[in-house]
Specification:
Helices cover 42% and strands 22% of the residues. It is of the alpha/beta class. The protein has one domain: Ribosomal Protein L15, Chain: K, domain 2.
Amino acid sequence: MKNSKSDNPELLNLIRFLKRASKESNVKIWRSIAHTLSKTRSNRVSINLSRINRHAEKRQVVVVAGKVLGAGTLRHPVTVAAFAYSATAKAKIKEAKGKCLTLPELVKKYPKGSNVKVLG
């Protein structure tokens, strides 16, 4: 049987960072995101901009525990934090005057995870 653990050192370091942040701040949201990221590649989350547009309100902070894809349009500014972005997704988020953050940047900016919406 194949070991399902990822070989991506960036992903492994991010999972460790999120678990440590969860333990230090006593916040369960970071552990939940780390758990979702530790799934196999086929079970990881990938979300299109159309879903973010549907479920996020103007100026809201959204976390995607996976990859953001560029299908659809984003009609209002939203701050999005994710493990990875497609090139078109980044361009469309910036075009809508939103922000693209990495997960460590989000943890440093919102250590308690308040006012953060998890999609996926």
